[in-house]
Structures are given as C-alpha cells and as structure tokens.
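Reviewer comment 2.1 asked that we show a complete input and output for one of the modelled complexes. We chose the zinc ion case, as it is the one discussed in the main text.
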Amino acid sequence: MRRIFPGSITSYSQFGHLKVPKSLNNVCPACKEKVEFVLKSTYQSSKHGLMTDSACPSCKNSIPFIILTKENDTHPDVYIYDPHQSTDALSQIEHIPGMPEELIRAYKSAVSVYLSKENLATAVLAKRVLENVLKNFLADKANGQPLDKQLELLPEHINLVKSVTSLSPLMASDKELHRMLELEAEMDDEMAELVMNLLEDLIQYLFVLPGKIEMTKEQIEKKLI
Ligand SMILES: [Zn+2]
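Response of the prediction step:
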C-alpha cells in the first residue's frame, strides 16, 4: 500500500458526503510508468472505506485503490495497492539491488518454517539468516567466529550513516532541491511525492527501525529472565 498524496490527485468526484479522487497521477505498480489513473466509480464499500480499481493506461493491468474513510472527515486517505511497497521484509528483499541470493533464500525458508510452527527448524534457519547477514558485511572475518563476536566486529565493516550522508550533495546550496526547500523554485507533484518518500525513509531509518529493534531486544531479554 502506498499513500497517494493530495498533490497527485488531478480531479475529484462526490460520493455521499465524501470527496473521492476521480483521477490521479502515479507510478503504476505493475509497469513502473508514471501514468494518470482514472478510478472506476463502481466502489465496493465497507465500514472502513471504499475499494475500486483502475486500468493502467500503459500496461492495461487493473490496479486496486483503497480509500479509507475517517469519521466526520470529508477528505479520506487514498492508497494504491503496490505489493512491492509493502513493509514486510519478505516482499521487499527481492527488489533491493545487491541483496545476496543466499540470504534471500535463507530468510524465505525461515519465514516458511516459522509459519508452519516448526520451532526447531525456525531456530536452525534463524541462525542461518543471522550468519548470512553478518557474512555479507564481514566476509572472511566471519569465519570461525561465534555470532556475538561477529556482531561486535560489525561496526568496523559497515557504514550505517552512508545512506544519510550521501544525501548531503542533494541539499547543496547550488542544487535545485535546495532552492525548492527555500521556496526559490517550485516543486512539481512528482518531486513533492519523492521528497515525502525520502522523509518517510529517513524517519524509518533513524528512528522507527532502531526503536523497533530495541523494543524487540527488550522483549527477548524479558522472556529470557
Ligand atoms: Zn502499468
């Protein structure tokens, strides 16, 4: 699910007391082309909102759209169903360039045995995933070292701030993005969406994920007492 920002909505129609999008510009999840979707007005309605679809003008695939309604709010949240945008690691890892094949396979197997409640196999494969993650960064240095030692060695072999510092040139004062943020140049809808995506990624990376790892770690520690 990917949120559609109001800037991408090109026209609206009325559905009861709701203002719902009639057409919108977005990247098609199937063909990755930037297209204008015209949403069908034959909504499937439920307690939480409306569902409809639209055929991509480029690849002709039918793409689902979800309109979530909130009480007394006439401007509902609109989402496009984009399976690649899903936040679960399993559907994401295959689309990340450079993900090691072995790690993808190990993680998929771990998820699959976990879902069939095979805890012994889950333990075996969880260890394999951890080893694969660490080996990816440590290479030969991982050989013969226990997991705790490998984790200690990790900071010397991984540059976690690189993805953040690499944004610096984008913000340089002679760059167009800098001028946009200073309101000296205008952002178009596509740039506004990209900037919003960047904000979301940064917040996830710097706050949400470290916080989640910490909470899970604490839960595991409590369980082990
Ligand atoms: Zn398409």
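The chain has a mean pLDDT of 90. We note this here for comparison with the apo prediction described in Section 3.2.
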